[in-house]
Amino acid sequence: MTRVPTTNWAASFHYGFRDCLYPTSVEAVCEIVARSPKIKTVGSGHSFNAIADGEVGLSLSELPINPIIEGDGTQVSIGGHCTYGELALFLHRHHLAVHNLASLPHISIAGAIATATHGSGNRNGNLATAVSGLEMVSGDGRLIKVARGHADFLALVVHLGALGVITRVTLDVQPEFQVAQSVYEGLAWDKLLANLDEIMAAGYSVSVFTQWRQHAGSIWVKRTASADEWPAAIHGATRATVNRHPISGLDSQNCTEQLGQYGRWSDRLPHFKMGFTPSSGEEIQSEFHVSKEYGATAIEALLSIREKFAHLVQAAEFRTVAADELWLSPQYHRDTLSIHFTWIRDQEAVNAAVEHIEQKLSRFTALPHWGKVFTGRHIRAKYERLPEFAQLRDRMDPQRTFSNPWLEDVIFGTSEN
């Protein structure tokens, strides 16, 4: 019996797939793409909009991930459908690591890089910046291999699922390292706004969680091995003595270990453990990126309208991401502060809240996370390389095999929606 995806992992977005194909080899992927008028790759289902929706799905879950260490231990080549949790287990056997992870280890590598998914850290680029090579199937069924330095490479990495099917990814790796995390509670808004840069520089990876209420919230600091003692407080926020969940009131058992205990990089950089339901499990997500230099001002702007959205927030998070050269990355040529929202599962109310947020952030040229809820209004004007990206699509998928109404409307449309 054919397994047809019906919803994303949070059951907040319902797909329109009527069929889904499960090839068992790359050759079969090429054959399917070559004969299909329309097809969309199905990954781990962690998008909250229609970017990956379609009538016929293509899942690579039956292909082996076949991980291989390359480049004298500086790279790993692996099936694109592999999750970061699976990747981490393989790399651990070779005492290796990638530079960063997102809050969830459950997501597929191919889907994460296609949408510029990220972790946090002033010096850490998004997950796509670790890509050094791609193997993908183009619209006519050809298998294409490109490496960093290729003329199209910077366009192909963050590709939104519009250019092909990623079958393998090569990532830069580094020696395995230790990370510890501690949570600091009771952060006041005035302290956050006055000291945002210093707070976000407090560790290798730093997140500030908030529910947009009277107090700003808590600082989650992830540090690599250091002889320094953990401070008792950071700008008035005091160190927690028990593990916490980012969503107030939820059990912390599915969260990665805190309390300053050092452990493997992959067991600390995500907020949630592999094998547990990430976050709350019943949610909608949005996220917007602004230039880091305007971070505090952008947060202050949203505080002025929080009555329009705070009641819908389960948790929100501020993170920093380093600049890169990838054409459709929200970090293209700018360090950013990301402003993330985990919403209750009320799509109509969330859509209205997002309208208010986008309007308030418009003067900061806020760019959305490609896989989360946003309006798409005026988005094309904010990406200077988008016309060239469209030309590349004309070459790689002239028949629009990988397109869908969302891509045509939001990314490639001729008029603003």
UniProtKB/TrEMBL annotation:
Its EC number is 1.1.3.41. One of its GO terms (cellular component) is membrane. Gene3D superfamilies: 3.30.465.10, 3.30.70.2520, 3.30.70.2530, Uridine Diphospho-n-acetylenolpyruvylglucosamine Reductase, domain 2, Vanillyl-alcohol Oxidase, Chain A, domain 4. The gene is xyoA. Pfam families: ALO, FAD_binding_4. One of its GO terms (molecular function) is xylitol oxidase activity. Keywords: FAD, Flavoprotein, Oxidoreductase. Residues 13-176 form the FAD-binding PCMH-type domain. It comes from Rhizobium favelukesii. This is FAD linked oxidase domain protein. Transmembrane segments: none annotated.
